[in-house]
Amino acid sequence: MLKAVKIKNGVYWVGAIDWNIRDYHGYTLPGTTYNAYLVIGDKVALIDGTYPGHEWQLIERIESVLPLEKIDYIVANHIEIDHSGSLPLLSKKLPNVPIYMTEIAKKGFARHYDTSAWNIHTIKNLENLPLGGGKTLTFLEAPFLHWPDSMFTYLGEDKILFPNDAFGQHVASSERFDDELGIDVAMEHAAKFVANLIVPLSPKVLKKLGEVTELGVPIEMIAPSHGIIWRSHAADIINAYVNWANGVSKNKITIVYDTMHYSTGIAAQYIAEGAISEGVEVKVDLLKDGRYEGVHRSDVVRDILDSKAVIVGSPTLEDYPLPTVAGFLYYLMGIRPGKQTQKKIGFAFGSNGGKGGAPKVITELLEKAGIQICHDPIEFTYRPDQADKEKFFALGQEIAKEIKKMP
Ligand SMILES: Cc1cc2nc3c(=O)[nH]c(=O)nc-3n(C[C@H](O)[C@H](O)[C@H](O)COP(=O)(O)O)c2cc1C
Q1: Contacts of 150 (CB under 8 A, 6+ apart)
Q2: Is there a single domain that holds both residue 258 and residue 380?
Q3: What is the ipTM of this complex?
Q4: 3-state SS, one letter per residue, for 18-87
Q5: What pTM did the predictor assign?
Q6: CA separation for the pair 317, 291 (Å, rounded)
Q7: Domain residues for 193?
Q8: Using only C-alpha atoms, what is the Rg of the chain?
Q9: Of 213, 246, 279, which closes a domain?
Q10: Does residue 240 sit in the same domain as residue 260?
Q11: How far apart are CA 106 and CA 99, in angstroms?
């Protein structure tokens, strides 16, 4: 039988490890976990659940602590199926057990499952659920963190926040805690998660963290619904969230491009060399799914998370950017990294066969992603010549100097 992991007295991790998942809604990941938690007072509550197909891990881990029938309450912090996929089975096995959720979740669940037989309890913001035995759950509505239905659950006596997807990371590992996995590795997985899922919600993150601070609820441990539990570095991940939400960046430039015959790649290299000569960090990402093996867009946005500048290149193909670049820009428009408190600058470039047009289209899409355009689109025909190379090197130097002046 799989075992639960004790995270505090009377609190257990009873989730599932999914070692195999490599793509989740277009985000590449090295596996993940679906975290669920058992809180045992006089009464017993189960917080969150698993993706469909992983219910067996959840049930075995619960039963390593107590019989499933001992569960008195189920808390559903979020409707998305990677957390709620076990509810259809649990609601059958535990037919009378109340399931706590927000009013919006109730409607959302009805669009996912047949909830007619569920014993649903809709929570009010800051409602308490005393379990007895020194365990009280408090529910905090957290709309749009990250879906309209989302809520956080707080276990006051143990100072544990169960914020569902917030503070999560997609990583499958034998370690359950930040200090076991290593803080740098944990932070890197958290950064990718934030770059892809949380950046568009930045104002809401800041507002919610402000509300939690005002409530004066001490948080010693953060137990998210994916990845490791923050037990030694809860304050560090909260601080990192504040910085990411504000768009705090390094003197770093991300250059992202695709190419058919590599002319645009030569230009990218010259921009990079110019910037490097000014002492700034540069990441050059050739987009995956293009002609060459490259970097997946979900990793490119991770690079952009702490970059002050984003430079995007594409040759012109039938008057437009390559589909990889266009697709990437649509992804970026949804994430809107340039719309955080601290701005990002950028421009577009690319090779053409005489007519061109791609960099102009890229510029428009970069603007929609909130990137402040600091240079007109730059085009050249076929291979860059010596003058082009020098121009691109100088541009790299120019933008590096510019970002060094930015906060
Ligand atoms: C199928 C195809 C369509 C193209 N369409 C255009 C176009 O609409 N306008 C243009 O100026 N060049 C066009 N070109 C030329 C490329 O933009 C040119 O070869 C460029 O140098 C390629 O840059 P790269 O080496 O970075 O791939 C096209 C090339 C191909 C193969």
Answers
A1: 77, 78, 102, 141, 142, 143, 144, 164, 165
A2: yes
A3: 0.96
A4: ECCCCEECCEECCCEEECCEEEECCCEEEECCCCCCCHHHHHHHHHCCCCHHHCCEEECCCCCHHHHCCH
A5: 0.94
A6: 14
A7: 5-246
A8: 24
A9: 246
A10: no
A11: 10
- What's the number of domains the chain is made of? 2
Tell me: pLDDT of 319 over 90.
Answer: yes
Q: What is the pLDDT of residues 346-368, one digit of tens each?
A: 999 999 999 999 999 999 999 99
Per the listing, tokens 């195999």 go with: 20
Q: Can you tell me which atom of ligand 1 is nearest the CA of 318? A: 8
Mean pLDDT of the region 102-113: 96
Q: Are 88 and 167 in a shared domain?
A: yes
**Do 380 and 403 touch, CB atoms closer than 8 A?**
no
CATH code: domain of residue 393 = 3.40.50.360
The residues lining ligand 1, judged by C-beta closer than 6 Å to any ligand atom, are 259-264, 315-319, 351-356, 382
pLDDT above 90 (res 214): no
d(CA 34, CA 84): 10
| Encoded amino acid at 18, one letter | D
- Name the DSSP letter for residue 101: E
Q: How far apart are CA 83 and CA 49, in angstroms?
A: 5
Give CA 64 to chain center in angstroms: 32
- Distance from Cα 20 to the centre of ligand 1, integer Å: 39
Residue closest via CA to ligand 1's atom 17 equals 352
Ligand 1 pocket mutation pick from 256, 260, 379 by most atoms within 8 angstroms of CB:
260
CA distances from 39 to 8, 12, 75, 159, 257 (A): 9, 7, 11, 13, 49
